[in-house]
Queue: 2 jobs
Job 1
Amino acid sequence: GENVEQHPSTLSVQEGDSAVIKCTYSDSASNYFPWYKQELGKRPQLIIDIRSNVGEKKDQRIAVTLNKTAKHFSLHITETQPEDSAVYFCAASKGGSYIPTFGRGTSLIVHP
Amino acid sequence: NAGVTQTPKFRVLKTGQSMTLLCAQDMNHEYMYWYRQDPGMGLRLIHYSVGEGTTAKGEVPDGYNVSRLKKQNFLLGLESAAPSQTSVYFCASSSLSGAGEQYFGPGTRLTVT
């Protein structure tokens, strides 16, 4: 089955810095890669996703890049703010399966 | 439009007791899922359902059973709770006509003593 590795497990940055979280996947048939943000005590919520026919997608301060050849994708957050502090999960799934495999999560801490 | 709701929010069980967690969604989604979340382990899939009357095992199904008698509800049962089942349980749903985005419920914190 699919295996998703996520790094780092913890990331500490100063407000205004950029943050990058990386994930690798094992199944070359995976073609949908969502990122979820989970604030403390809350439910995970989708913040951005990308399909395998696209190399990069941006939404204001967040962006996701995908390298299908290397089987890795990354979340980029620019101009970080304290409210970006949360656990971020990446996931991968195959088209038509709707059964994602999640990474173990990255705890992002943004210091004011 | 409440989205995905879960009942109860918190529960404490003694070893060997049974309980049922209820998940409900009002978005007419075909897919529903049960996950458990433990520190450092991410979200692990317990069981899922691709439609009313169908269920399938996920990554960590042992000790759990599920049922989906109605499209909007997905029940997770623990027949004989064990301390290893202490966790936060999340239900989620997704639409076949969507891209694959999952909508999560607020979670149930279960402690087994």
Note: The longest strand of chain B covers residues 42-51.
Job 2
Amino acid sequence: DTGVSQDPRHKITKRGQNVTFRCDPISEHNRLYWYRQTLGQGPEFLTYFQNEAQLEKSRLLSDRFSAERPKGSFSTLEIQRTEQGDSAMYLCASSLRLAGVTGELFFGEGSRLTVL
Amino acid sequence: AQSVTQLDSQVPVFEEAPVELRCNYSSSVSVYLFWYVQYPNQGLQLLLKYLSGSTLVESINGFEAEFNKSQTSFHLRKPSVHISDTAEYFCAVSDVWAGGTSYGKLTFGQGTILTVHP
């Protein structure tokens, strides 16, 4: 399968613990996006990368959240000192930006976080 | 700032009946428009998109959507639904800047759960 893959698919943690999610985009894609989806809502943009550079962060991304894409390939999203309000599905997507045109976003199946 | 409103959170229909899922948006600039579908336990999949040209766009599985600039709408329709169309559908927009540039960042609606009954 050469689509976007996310790991782990499910994570249950206790309040105050740190968690990290990994996203492996489609190999030739240079753009990578993180979204968060809570129950009954559509996905909300968190941040995106062009290669290894983080170009934009949403106000939703508090200082407890950090995302990296160190070599322009896979990305990690870390949440420190988790809170119950962090419980959500974390979605990763990738796309190919070429000659100023951003192509279709391909989404992974998501990582579901439950904070007890 | 953009926003997307999907007017119906749930739409139940019988198999072979027509369906319309409504989507309205607001934006201060031009937009690209998308419909995504999410089947249970699967990721979001692009169903169709409007970038430019004909305002009526179609998907390979019989869905169509029409961009109406004056009404800022992008409603999704299918003349005859199947059981397999049961899923959650999301409308999304992306701002378009000079020269047709889009950053690819999407703003989604809240989603509409389509349930097709036999």
Note: The interface with chain B takes residues 3-4, 31, 33, 40-45, 48, 55-56, 91, 93, 95, 97, 100-110 of chain A (CB under 8 Å).
